[in-house]
């Protein structure tokens, strides 16, 4: 008899996978193959120890947006009535019924109640078990996997079952099917594809600058000084009495300030700020600053040199994040922002949402850091109270996120939503988060996904930025004073083509998300843009039809940026020398400082912080300086055009301090 090899192989496969699940059980999660580069290296020993973590379905997650609007919309009777962290945990905690049903399942399956931990944040039930026990409970088989390139190991299954009767109460079980893509494996296309480019908006430095012009307002078209910023946005000098509860938060990672640079800057351009003035350290997981002047980072120096002159004598709190092993690694972990968010709210450390429970050891830094010289302490959870405003000049592209998130449906994009829901919850607690919208117009940085930073097989499709497309943050685009113009005229969107005098092209990041739909607060503004200033490009509607009919952007995605501020030719000192820097990296600390100043005035009359700004800004566009000149080129196009009202280049416009102050003081 002749046996077909293929038949034989099939027969073996069936035998190996034979752990029949009872009729009462259903497949809860399943994948067809391991993600690229992950190799199955064999069955797990039955006596291998695992911790089974059962993510419980949270209550009210679908109401998150509604809750946020309730405290953030200027017409809501609850405007400004922000929540405590405890209220946040309570609102989203799984129901008692969910906890009871899942517990009963475990008890009936022979897992004694005394072994089961219900975590403090209510989000999950966890218990230690042998692999054999877990396999029997979940009617599954665990395998060891190894990443071919990075050597990282993981334990996972291809599918697992839960009783149909309680399936609706379970979000996700770990160890489960997840084998995250640890890092992007892509060719480097020059500088910007290196480590930090995928996660931060690099300030560009033009060292071969013209002579330096002092702080004369007549030269703001050549270099932007603190006086130019104050004049552009009509920011008066700060009060000398500041509220100790209103320090401005600035996030940094893998880039460090030097005191000598700040001192040189203060001496030359802000003589009212004493030498030695420095941010208050809020160091996270082994991060340290400052560094010697020869090692100073362009981002950190820029952020402090812009923010201090606007807010001083108010202080800055520096959220320097991650030990240098992680912060400076050549293959950055993709789970950017999570360790930072953990430090602000401990419930995040073990928080479960949409399938992700706490940090992901395959994506996020692991502490204590096992590598030489790493931070040996425990992951820092909830150690800092978040400041009222946090400025973030770092980011990447939506497409940098692991493919497995993107292969799933919108509601099941765990990490994207996990990070978004963390931002949402900070907004609920009264924290305003501002993020730089990117420096590559409608594209990503060169080398991100393709040489030109664009998406699709022909590299023609616009690449939305991350976390910018998250609807719960305020994105800041960049403007500039063109040569021959003054601070008394409207600014324009930044368009600096590559080549002389700049080596790296720079245009204000903007566009439409492939992940998030248009949020309500923005709907009228986006509709107005499409109706009256329709971009001349084909588009698609929803990522399911990504690139269809030559479409270049998602017409029904969340648009960004929301606002803008100056981001070009910023006078800075870095590594001991004067130079001009820029990027939306510069715009963000400027806008954040303005919001900090406005909160200062609110606190002075007994009002509170502002939390999520967008609903108020979108319904009061009059309080911003509308920008109507310029575009944001990328992907071989002119990009989008600025227009009266909101546009995906400069958002609603730049700050008009007197108007924003009047607006926000008028609110409860
Ligand atoms: C700062 O916050 C603390 C704690 O909430 C409060 O007791 C104190 O009054 C605040 N200080 C000012 C000046 O508002
Ligand atoms: C301004 O900066 C330069 C270095 O670029 C430094 O030599 C000089 O001392 C500074 N000026 C003042 C007034 O401190
Ligand atoms: C900074 O410079 C000082 C003096 O030159 C030196 O002793 C120190 O080791 C340097 N620190 C770092 C982190 O390089
Ligand atoms: C959008 O669809 C494209 C093509 O199917 C895919 O490559 C990409 O990962 C998707 N993006 C998101 C955010 O889902
Ligand atoms: C890529 O370009 C070719 C040739 O112009 C075209 O036929 C094809 O549809 C394009 N593919 C995408 C995804 O845009
Ligand atoms: C408008 O923007 C262009 C560059 O896009 C610039 O050359 C021009 O000077 C700007 N006009 C004004 C009035 O600023």
From TrEMBL:
PROSITE patterns: SEDOLISIN (PS51695). GO terms for cellular component: extracellular region. Residues 1-18 form the signal peptide. The active site is at residues 299, 303, 585. GO terms for biological process: proteolysis. Ca(2+) binds at residues 626-627, 645, 647. Residues 223-667 form the Peptidase S53 domain. Binds 1 Ca(2+) ion per subunit. It is found in: Secreted, Extracellular space. GO terms for molecular function: metal ion binding; serine-type endopeptidase activity; tripeptidyl-peptidase activity. Keywords: Calcium, Hydrolase, Metal-binding, Protease, Serine protease, Signal, Zymogen. Its main location: secreted. Its cofactor is Ca(2+). The keyword Protease applies. It comes from the Eukaryota. This is Aorsin. It comes from Talaromyces atroroseus. The lineage of its organism: Eukaryota, Fungi, Dikarya, Ascomycota, Pezizomycotina.
């Amino acid at each position: 008899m002749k046996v077909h090899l293929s038949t034989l192989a099939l027969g073996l496969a069936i035998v190996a996978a034979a752990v029949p699940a009872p009729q009462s059980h259903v497949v809860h999660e399943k994948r067809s193959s391991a993600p690229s580069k992950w190799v199955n290296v064999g069955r797990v020993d039955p006596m291998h120890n695992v911790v089974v973590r059962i993510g419980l379905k949270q209550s009210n997650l679908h109401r998150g947006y509604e809750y946020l609007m309730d405290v953030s919309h200027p017409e809501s009777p609850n405007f400004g009535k922000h929540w405590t962290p405890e209220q946040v945990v309570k609102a989203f905690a799984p129901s008692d019924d969910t906890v009871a049903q899942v517990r009963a399942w475990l008890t009936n399956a022979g897992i004694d109640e005394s072994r089961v931990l219900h975590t403090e944040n209510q989000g999950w039930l966890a218990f230690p078990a042998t692999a054999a026990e877990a396999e029997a409970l979940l009617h599954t088989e665990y395998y060891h996997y190894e990443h071919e390139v990075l050597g990282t190991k993981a334990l996972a299954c291809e599918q697992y079952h839960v009783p149909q009767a309680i399936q609706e109460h379970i979000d996700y079980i770990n160890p489960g099917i997840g084998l995250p893509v640890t890092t992007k494996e892509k060719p480097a296309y020059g500088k910007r594809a290196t480590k930090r480019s995928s996660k931060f908006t690099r300030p560009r430095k033009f060292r071969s600058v013209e002579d330096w012009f002092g702080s004369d307002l007549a030269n703001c078209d050549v270099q932007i000084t603190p006086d130019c910023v104050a004049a552009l946005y009509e920011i008066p000098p700060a009060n000398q009495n500041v509220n100790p509860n209103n320090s401005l938060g600035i996030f940094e990672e893998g880039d460090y300030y030097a005191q000598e640079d700040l001192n040189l800057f203060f001496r030359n351009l802000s003589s009212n700020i004493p030498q030695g003035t420095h941010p208050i350290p809020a160091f996270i997981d082994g991060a340290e600053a400052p560094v010697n002047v020869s090692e100073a980072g362009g981002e950190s120096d820029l952020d402090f040199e812009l923010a201090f002159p606007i807010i001083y004598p108010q202080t800055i709190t520096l959220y320097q994040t991650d030990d240098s092993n992680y912060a400076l690694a050549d293959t950055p972990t993709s789970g950017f922002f999570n360790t930072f968010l953990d430090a602000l709210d401990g419930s995040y450390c073990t928080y479960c949402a949409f399938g992700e429970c706490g940090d992901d050891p395959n994506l996020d830094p692991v502490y204590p850091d096992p590598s030489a010289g790493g931070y040996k302490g425990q992951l820092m959870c909830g150690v800092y109270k978040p400041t009222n405003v946090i400025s973030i000049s770092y980011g990447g592209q939506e497409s940098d996120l692991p493919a497995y998130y993107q292969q799933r449906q919108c509601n099941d994009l765990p990490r994207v939503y996990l990070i978004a829901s963390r931002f949402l919850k900070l907004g609920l607690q009264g924290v305003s988060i501002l993020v730089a919208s990117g420096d590559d117009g409608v594209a990503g940085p060169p080398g991100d996904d393709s040489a030109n930073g664009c998406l699709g097989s022909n590299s023609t499709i616009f690449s939305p930025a991350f976390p910018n497309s998250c609807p719960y943050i305020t994105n800041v685009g960049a403007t500039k004073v063109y040569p021959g113009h003054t601070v008394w005229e409207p600014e324009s969107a930044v368009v600096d083509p590559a080549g002389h005098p700049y080596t790296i092209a720079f245009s204000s990041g903007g566009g439409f998300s492939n992940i998030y739909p248009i949020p309500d607060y923005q709907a009228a503004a986006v509709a107005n843009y499409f109706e009256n200033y329709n971009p001349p490009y084909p588009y698609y509607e929803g990522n399911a039809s990504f690139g269809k009919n030559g479409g270049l952007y998602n017409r029904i995605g969340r648009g960004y940026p929301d606002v803008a501020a100056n981001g070009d030719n910023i006078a800075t000192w870095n590594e001991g020398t004067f130079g001009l820097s820029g990027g939306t990296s510069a715009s963000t600390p400027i806008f954040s400082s303005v919001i900090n100043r406005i909160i200062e005035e609110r606190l002075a009359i007994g009002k509170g912080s502002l939390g999520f700004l967008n609903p108020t800004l979108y319904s009061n566009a009059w309080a911003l300086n509308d920008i109507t000149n310029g575009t944001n080129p990328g992907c071989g196009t002119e990009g989008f055009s600025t227009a009266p009202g909101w546009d995906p280049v400069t958002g609603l416009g730049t700050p008009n301090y007197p108007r924003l102050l009047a607006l926000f003081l008028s609110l409860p």
